[in-house]
Write a structure and sequence with these properties.
Radius of gyration: 35 Å
Oligomer: single chain
CATH topology of the largest domain: Transferase(Phosphotransferase), domain 1
CATH class of the largest domain: Mainly Alpha
Structural class: alpha+beta
Distance between the termini: 141 Å
Shape: elongated
Order of helices and strands: HEHEEEHEEHEEHEEHEEHHHHEE
Number of helices: 10
CATH architecture of the largest domain: Orthogonal Bundle
């Protein structure tokens, strides 16, 4: 009887030993895992602490840099729009000499070795300029004409332009306005030397279109709050020495005189006083005072059509019995593109000074883009970003090393006709 008992005792003992060994093994394994987890958590904590330290340092550094930049730049920004004295402007323009007259009431001046465009105006105009727009980085956008400074004097000033008691000082654009080049081809190379009947090349025209579109994209989609120019015209687009386009009259939409480079045209309190100006007016403005970015897009579409055709935004067509009617450029392109022989009509409509020296496929693209910009419905027009995207593709396709010179008819060069001093 003792043998079975021995076997049972041995079996139970062995089982207990096995259970104990298994429990020990499980305990050891769990302990190791726990140690590994604690070690990993410790490393993570250290890593997070280190990252947090770096992040804090980075944030602090960026913050300090920003503060430092703001502190260092705030003084500069305060000086963005300078205050000139009447004596400085008188000296700069040689007492507003007729030899320094650019056109209208705008004079060329030299101050501290820098060329300036000095506009004769009045206190009322100065008071309506949105100077807050010139106290930040927007003032330095490469496709916007910079307002460099102002000058106000008493009713009896010491300048030769005594009828004007205030002056605006702008960045000087050596090659005048787009209107000068497109309409008539009279381009002032240097108003001290001569002017020639010169014409922009096709490639230059494409780049000018893109420059203006980029300026609109900046005003409409990058500035916060967005800005609507309201007075985009070919005469308010200026060309620098490299024929880069810059939009003028920025921040001056509420001024009584909208055309600060008026080219001798009469001013008026009316927002759209000139016949040509009516060609830029979006249809919705005739029945509403709502100001949206789409009105700039409409005006830009008209500028595109001017660049393509060399025609004014509004032309006069004779009717029977000596009557006349106004024909809008925006209406002409709609008729042309709807024609069954649109390609043929478009070729005839293009600026004849270009001859065959342009891409007809690109011309079709721009004509259709302009057509979209001058849609009657504001919501049907593209936004500035979409316009930039399409024009960028066309400019990217231009050949490398393209000559950036304008076309000059040397036989037509003539001395510059200097206009009289402003009243």
């Amino acid at each position: 009887m003792w043998k079975p008992r021995v076997y049972i005792a041995v079996t139970v003992t062995a089982f207990i030993i096995c259970v104990a060994i298994a429990a020990s093994a499980i305990y050891i394994i769990l302990s190791r895992k726990k140690k590994k987890k604690l070690h990993h958590d410790s490393l993570c904590t250290k890593s997070l602490d280190l990252e947090h330290q770096h992040l804090s340092l980075s944030i602090r550094t960026v913050s300090e840099t920003k503060i430092s930049f703001e502190e260092s730049s705030s003084k500069k920004l305060q000086l963005v729009v300078e205050t000139f004295t009447a004596e400085e402007l008188t000296t700069a323009t040689d007492h507003f000499s007729s030899t320094n007259l650019i056109d209208g009431t705008v004079y060329h001046g030299r101050h501290n070795g820098k060329s300036l465009a000095i506009k004769c105006t009045d206190h009322r105009t100065i008071s309506k300029i949105k100077f807050e727009l010139f106290h930040d980085a927007t003032h330095f956008h490469p496709n916007l004409i910079r307002l460099l400074g102002t000058c106000t004097i008493g009713s009896h000033g010491s300048t030769s332009a005594d009828d004007h008691n205030a002056f605006l000082v702008f960045e000087y654009s050596k090659n005048g306005s787009l209107k000068d080049w497109i309409h008539g081809g009279l381009a002032v190379k240097s108003h001290f030397i001569a002017s020639c009947y010169c014409f922009l090349t096709w490639n230059q025209r494409l780049r000018i279109c893109l420059d203006v579109a980029i300026a609109l994209q900046y005003m409409h989609q990058i500035m916060n709050p967005s800005y609507v120019h309201r007075n985009l015209r070919s005469r308010n687009i200026f060309l620098d020495e490299e024929f880069n386009a810059k939009v003028g009259n920025f921040g001056m939409e509420e001024c009584g005189e909208h055309d600060h480079f008026s080219k001798g045209e009469p001013s008026s309190e009316n927002l759209y006083p000139m016949r040509w100006d009516r060609g830029y007016i979006a249809p919705e403005l005739k029945n509403s005072d709502a100001i949206t970015a789409s009105i700039d897009i409409y005006a830009f579409g008209v500028v595109l059509l001017e660049i393509l055709s060399g025609k004014p935004p509004v032309s006069i067509r004779s009717k029977l019995e000596k009557e006349e009617e106004e024909v809008l450029l925006s209406a002409e392109i709609k008729i042309i593109l709807q024609s069954s022989i649109a390609d043929e009509k478009l070729r005839e409509w293009m600026d004849n000074v270009l001859g065959e020296n342009y891409s007809f496929d690109a011309a079709i693209t721009i004509a259709n883009l302009a057509r979209a910009c001058v849609e009657d419905g504001p919501l049907l027009r593209p936004n500035a970003g979409e316009v930039v995207q399409k024009l960028s593709k066309l400019v990217a396709e231009l050949p490398e090393g393209e000559e950036k010179q304008f076309v000059v008819n040397e036989s037509s060069c003539k001395p510059l006709v200097v206009k009289p001093v402003c009243d």
